[in-house]
Amino acid sequence: MKLITRDTDYAVRAVCFIVRHKERVISVTELVKKLKIPRPFLRKLLQALSKKGVLGSHRGLGGGFSLAKPANKIFLVDLIEIFQGPLKLNECFFKKITCPNVKRCLLRKKIDNIERYVQDSLKSITIASLLK
Amino acid sequence: MKLITRDTDYAVRAVCFIVRHKERVISVTELVKKLKIPRPFLRKLLQALSKKGVLGSHRGLGGGFSLAKPANKIFLVDLIEIFQGPLKLNECFFKKITCPNVKRCLLRKKIDNIERYVQDSLKSITIASLLK
DNA sequence: ACAAAATGATACTAATATGGTATCATTCCT
DNA sequence: AGGAATGATACCATATTAGTATCATTTTGT
């Protein structure tokens, strides 16, 4: 049970690199060299980030990616949700049959509390805060 | 990213049922009827629980499973670890190459804090507390 | 003793999620 | 015009999760 998958981890690294050079446009080629991430995979990640408005993209010779918004406006939870879907620690496995057990719902409630905490924590982490 | 997988969820339900009838020995047949969990799958789960000392087993006609320890001594985290392995939210994806980035370690530190909280929370939840 | 009812052990299969590739189209700069 | 870049999309490989199947062993009732 991983909070952060490889996609997200790579994406964080890539975005951080781009933030540290935000005056330039960064090509996949450069990122591959610096981060040692498989090129086609990294491309997929960057495309997703650009589609979701985290990065801007520039085609053609000399093109690449650049920040689309300030680093303190990009939250870790954004990247997690792009690559891993909505943050849900919890999910009732008995949606179909009416869940007859009090205990189950107690479990749910407790997990929900944990989930809330994790969500709040992740929402407070910005890319900027990972760079200091 | 699920905190609790289906195995664990089923196992919690089964153990709860057994706790609520702890004066008797409960057979898989009865549990299947009550919980609507596929029989061979449930059997696998119960065997694991008995191997790990959460349940005791009784073979032969009239046999089944029973509690091996009091419900307030069985922790949710125990069941999670039986079915999902050690609770680790975090894992550095760059163990091989020396991780050169301060940011990565900052990320790690933050995730570690969240992990600690989740672990502590789960350690405090007993099966007994799910029954009240 | 023996048959039925239960678990023990273990190997296998199916479905889904994750991690990664490949390819062709499109755009932009020189 | 042509090369260097991203856009879009479909595909493949591996691992994890969920579930099945089967035979051996033990216990109990008759």
Q: Name the helicity range of chain A.
A: 40-55%
Q: Supply the helix-strand structural class of chain A.
A: mainly alpha
Task: Give the strand content of chain A.
Answer: 5-15%
Q: What about the largest sheet of chain A? A: 2 strands, antiparallel
Oligomer designation: homodimer
Output the CATH topology of chain A: Arc Repressor Mutant, subunit A
The greatest interface between two protein chains, and residues involved on each side, is: A-B, 41 and 41 residues
| Top-tier CATH class of chain A | Mainly Alpha
What is the CATH superfamily classification of chain A?
Winged helix-like DNA-binding domain superfamily/Winged helix DNA-binding domain
Question: Keywords, please?
Answer:
elongated, two-stranded antiparallel sheet, homodimer, Arc Repressor Mutant, subunit A, 6% strand, 51% helix, DNA-binding, mainly alpha, 132 residues, 5 helices
Task: Tell me about this structure.
The structure is a homodimer of 132-residue chains. By secondary structure, the first copy, chain A, is mainly alpha-helical. Chain A has a single domain (6-130), classed as Arc Repressor Mutant, subunit A (Orthogonal Bundle), CATH 1.10.10.10. Chain A is 51% helix and 6% strand. Chain A is built from 5 helices and 2 strands; from the N terminus they run H-H-H-E-E-H-H. Chain A has helices at 6-20, 28-35, 39-51, 76-84, 102-123; strands at residues 55-58, 64-67. In chain A, strands 1-2 form a two-stranded antiparallel ribbon. The A-B interface holds A 1-6, 9-10, 12-13, 16, 36, 76, 84, 87-91, 93, 97, 101-104, 106-107, 110-111, 113-115, 117-118, 121-122, 125, 129-132 and B 1-6, 9-10, 12-13, 16, 36, 76, 84, 87-91, 93, 97, 101-104, 106-107, 110-111, 113-115, 117-118, 121-122, 125, 129-132. The first copy, chain A, binds a DNA duplex (30 and 30 nucleotides) through residues 5-7, 27-29, 38-41, 43-44, 46-47, 50-51, 57-65.
